[in-house]
Amino acid sequence: MTNTAPEEQLAELRKLLEATSPGPVDEASPVESLLVSCWECFRGNTETSMTAGKLLARIENLKWEPPCLEFEFERHGGTVKGSSRAELHSWSVDINARTATVTLGRFRQLCPKNPPLYVKPIAAELAQIIIEGRDDPRVKWSDDGTVLVKIGKIVPDNAPQQTVTGRRERFRAALADALGQEGWSQVPGKPNRFMKDQDA
């Protein structure tokens, strides 16, 4: 059995748009709600896993550029993974051809970016502490003479995981380089633990 309701909504949308001037669509206009109601009528409507339910109340910058309705839609996938930015997808819905196409538009900054972390000065400072055998809250000495760098105290988990991972890798590399010049090396298999080379 054919679902006629979306087709009826599409017919009503077309009639409304015939009387609508090109340009931004007034928020008070029923165009948006009609578009959502007949969303399944357009080929390509499921691209990027889009559904009418997701569109509801999340359409932005709706414009009528005959024969297309154009709008932006904010994707939330990145924020779930800790990103501070959201993707804005641009949609173009051809009312006559009954097609819906999407392109990646731009990114929206949702919260302030984490300030850059300059790892080399920190690595140089900590290398000197280790070389001199001093105590510090960021290191833990073992009886065998090795030292554990408490990476969480240097690069805490207060940023997206990708950022944290990258910063920690850069810090370890900078610290290993600074210590390597003084005869220290990383303990094999333990990237945060260092030891004095026997022949140094």
Q: What can you see in these coordinates?
A:
This protein has helices spanning 4-18, 31-37, 52-55, 77-80, 119-131, 151-154, 161-180; strands at residues 23-24, 59-65, 68-75, 85-94, 99-109, 139-141, 147-149, 184-187, 190-196. It is an alpha+beta fold. The chain has 2 domains: 4-109; 119-196, no CATH class. Helix 5 (119-131) crosses helix 7. The longest helix has 20 residues, at 161-180. The model is unreliable at 78-82 (pLDDT under 50).
Layout of strands and helices, then pairs:
Elements: H1 4-18, E1 23-24, H2 31-37, H3 52-55, E2 59-65, E3 68-75, H4 77-80, E4 85-94, E5 99-109, H5 119-131, E6 139-141, E7 147-149, H6 151-154, H7 161-180, E8 184-187, E9 190-196
Antiparallel strand pairs: 1-2, 2-3, 3-4, 4-5, 6-7, 7-9, 8-9
Helix pairs in contact: 1-2, 5-7
For the secondary structure, the number of strands is 9
Q: With helices defined by DSSP (H or I, 4 residues minimum), what is the helix count?
A: 7
Q: Give the count of structural domains.
A: 2
Distance between the termini: 83 Å
Q: How is the largest sheet built, in terms of strand order?
A: 1-2-3-4-5
Oligomer: single chain
Descriptive key words:
4-stranded antiparallel beta sheet; 9 strands; alpha+beta; 2 domains; 5-stranded antiparallel beta sheet
Question: Brief overview, please?
Answer:
The chain is an alpha+beta fold. The chain contains 7 helices and 9 strands; from the N terminus they run αβααββαββαββααββ.
